[in-house]
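A reminder before we start the practical. When you read a complex entry, don't treat the lines as separate problems. The point of joint prediction is that each chain is placed relative to the others, so the output describes one connected object in space. Small molecules and nucleic acid strands, if listed, are placed in the same frame. In the example below there are two entries. Take a minute to note the order of the lines before looking further.
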Amino acid sequence: MRYEAPDSVEGAVALLSAANGEARVLAGGTDLLVQMRADMVDPELIVDIKKIAETRVVTEEKGGWRIGAAVTGAELKEHARLKKAWPGVVEAANLIGSTQVQGRATLGGNLCNGSPAADSVPALIAAGAVATLAGPQGRRDLPVEDVMLGPRKLALKKGEIVVSFLLPPRAARSSDAYLRFIPRTEMDIAVVGAGVSLSLDGAGTITAARVSLGAVAARILLVSEAAQAIIGSRLDEPAQRRLEAAARAVCRPIDDKRGTIEFRTDVAAVLARRAALIALDRARTS
Amino acid sequence: MAKHHIETTVNGDAVEFLCETEDTLLDVLRDTLNMTGSKEGCASGDCGACSVTLDGRLVCSCLVLGCEVAGRRIETIEGLAKGETLHPLQQKFLEHAALQCGICTPGFLVASKALLERSPDPSDHEIRFWLAGNLCRCTGYDKIVSAVKDAAATMRKG
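Here is the predicted structure of the whole assembly.
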């Protein structure tokens, strides 16, 4: 097993493109090392991307924020201005694992691990985040909702990596929130996750919204029907009921010991509503 | 392929070692550097018994590759006591009987030290959330939380 830690995106892409056997990108390693230990993966090549400067920084760009793919949850938590602009994205990232895991876990890894239950991904999708990919053909931008195609299945081509994420500029009276259900208070994998981002006009009416649900289908969903259900409203009771119905309607969850289909579907509706109410409250005071 | 030759810093000392790509930092600490204070509980990042800090950041050493730590700054449980003088956290864990079998203790101590460096006067709630990644199957957590609070009070007095 080879280990390489290139200091440029081009170097990482060249290594991954030239790999004959299985090659894996190492960011925080909180999924990869566990999977290697469990003999789920046995890569011929590991490419550590943390020496590539642009994967490790949070910068302002065009009024929005660019977050490197290998920035850790702990670093996001300490970034006061990012947290103020995108509290939902940061709280979602911070729900992944323990303090120790937060010291390593990254947004890029959470997305590329390809789990439908990834906590940070619904928040990124709700935020309208765009992933910047680099590959043998150069760079391209892909909305986060289009990166994951199914469990462990990504839209990335051979040799391609996620370099960073761009969160769009934030209008006044805008905010976001992420909630998940787990059977305990911390350190578990989402049974359902819900991210909501919204903007209000001066009268408190929702002018724009995005809703994303995790762990209720083979991929993490952008639910435009749920957003449409609340745009133009002040999230009064009827709008909340419409949001719940729209969330429920898109759920195609698995049935397992952690949650039945019925339970996950119900919880998706409840979490979407509660996340929307939190985002609304934050937007009013932002 | 040839082993990786890594130069790094552990508890302030320059250290070099050879490792395979798949060797974790925990493997290196315990099996190569004979620093067996960090424990292997789960080897999957769930239990915190292998906690160390890497450039000041609390991590599970079972989830770090040995070849990742070149040029970094590692602090382990072995760096807590100064000679024969226990760190206040170690002293308070003893006084509060915050351990039984001791396997989880190095991880709790390293994690608690990292907490107190950021938050010198943490609430119970803050301590419990910070230490949620450290599992103890003997004593329960009340005595550990008490010990951390008491150590924090001692350390604030300087």
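Discuss with your neighbour: Residues 30 and 60 of chain B are 14 Å apart (CA to CA). What might explain this?
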